[in-house]
Amino acid sequence: LAMGNATFRRIVATREHVVGGRVLTNSNQLLGSYEGAEGIKTGTTEAAGQCLVSSAVRKDGHALCVVLGSADRYRDTRLLLDYYFGSYIQVPLGLGAVGLARVRRPDGHWASLVPEQSPVALLPRWQLPWLRVQRVVARKPEPGGAAGLVRYTLGTVTLAQVPLQFGTP
Q: CA 145 → CA 32, 88, 98, 116, 137, distances in Å?
């Protein structure tokens, strides 16, 4: 929730800032040294050890990582983030080929199908070949009602099911 606030994101990602002639330095060593690192919060206590809450964004995903009780929070965080970005991908679920998303409306005119929502799935990279998109067009859609639905499946598991609307041709 905090990372949804632009001011908070800007503050935790700032490496250095001068206030009243004093230079304040962010102790998060990931900033500037780890691709996509956005900061967040470091901390150390005797009871908890070295702790780090971090966020990193790359073109194919966003990760939030929490390391507690570590002997080397930066190494542990890098290992966890590298594993995540190497093993998982956030996939925007669309309709696939544009030509397959065109149908004839009940009035005889052609229209494109448009999903009511744009879901995103977090998948292990190895599962991508099994991701399927199934468009189910309503035989007699009600005026102003759903034109059908799109179902996203991975093997026998339904990841999401979204109503479809008629868009412009």
A: 50, 36, 22, 11, 12
Q: Is this structure's pTM higher than 0.85?
A: no
Tens digit of each residue's pLDDT (9 = 90 or more) over 92-151: 898 766 556 777 777 777 888 888 888 999 999 999 999 998 888 877 766 667 888 899
Q: On the CB side of 26, how many CA atoms lie within 13 Å of its CA?
A: 22
85 φ/ψ angles, rounded to the nearest 5 degrees:
-65, -25
Separation in Å, CA 80 to CA 66, 103, 127, 155, 165? 9, 45, 20, 28, 41
Q: For residue 7, which amino acid is it?
A: T
User: Tokens 């190494």 map to which residue?
Assistant: 75
- The three-state secondary structure class of 163 is strand
pLDDT single digits (tens) 43-53: 999 999 999 99
| Number of Cβ atoms within 10 Å of the Cβ of 107 | 8
